[in-house]
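TASK: fixed-backbone design
INPUT:
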């Protein structure tokens, strides 16, 4: 799940096909502090502006200055996985009824592949826990692997899971697939997490390649 070394500009409206209202964004202010915060897409007018709602625990108002340049990033977890990024200008901060930020519509978009291997969609039971070499008595969480390659996968927590974010951390993934007879513990690391309509999911990069998982995705 390596980040590509180069990126290419793309049509400044094409990125809209990859997002929907509620999409999570990372917002970096290009000030001396390089301050960053998390926000969600509320709306936009193509060619004019983009509107975000800032999280409650986001940066104080004094960090948001009209005219300040910002960098926005968001992830698209499809079969390959890409990071989209664009630079824009902060136009306005609104404090009521919620803290909303308006930025100018981007003139250019950069896209970078998150991984070199294509992942195949799948839905098999699995569980994750923190690596016991790092943390003792780690709790195990149930869910499903929803896409996979020999180098990594995306794990979706069961709907009962109450968390909203998972930090980068070494984990153990336990895949249980009766159909193929696989009962395997795989060491890896959480590379990203996202909260969407179906629940919380995490992107996992395996410490070592697991070639048999490519076959598993085809057969399941």
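OUTPUT:
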């Amino acid at each position: 799940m390596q980040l590509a070394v180069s990126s290419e500009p793309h049509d400044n409206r094409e990125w809209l096909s990859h997002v929907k209202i509620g999409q999570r964004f990372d917002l970096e202010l290009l000030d001396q502090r390089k301050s960053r915060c998390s926000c969600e897409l509320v709306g936009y007018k193509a060619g004019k502006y983009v509107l975000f709602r800032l999280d409650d625990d986001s940066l104080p108002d004094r960090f948001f200055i009209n005219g300040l340049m910002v960098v926005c990033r968001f992830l698209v977890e499809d079969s390959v996985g890409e990071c989209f990024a664009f630079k824009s200008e902060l136009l306005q901060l609104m404090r009521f009824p919620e803290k909303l930020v308006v930025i100018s519509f981007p003139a250019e978009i950069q896209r970078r592949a998150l991984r070199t291997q294509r992942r195949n969609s799948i839905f098999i039971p699995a569980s994750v826990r923190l690596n016991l070499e790092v943390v003792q008595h780690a709790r195990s969480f149930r869910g499903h692997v929803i896409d996979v390659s020999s180098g990594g996968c995306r794990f979706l927590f069961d709907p009962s899971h109450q968390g909203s974010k998972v930090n980068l951390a070494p984990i153990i993934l336990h895949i249980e697939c009766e159909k193929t007879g696989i009962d395997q513990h795989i060491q890896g690391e959480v590379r990203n997490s996202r909260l969407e309509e179906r629940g919380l999911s995490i992107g996992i990069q395996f410490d070592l390649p697991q070639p048999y998982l490519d076959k598993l995705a085809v057969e399941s």
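COMMENT: The longest strand covers residues 182-196.
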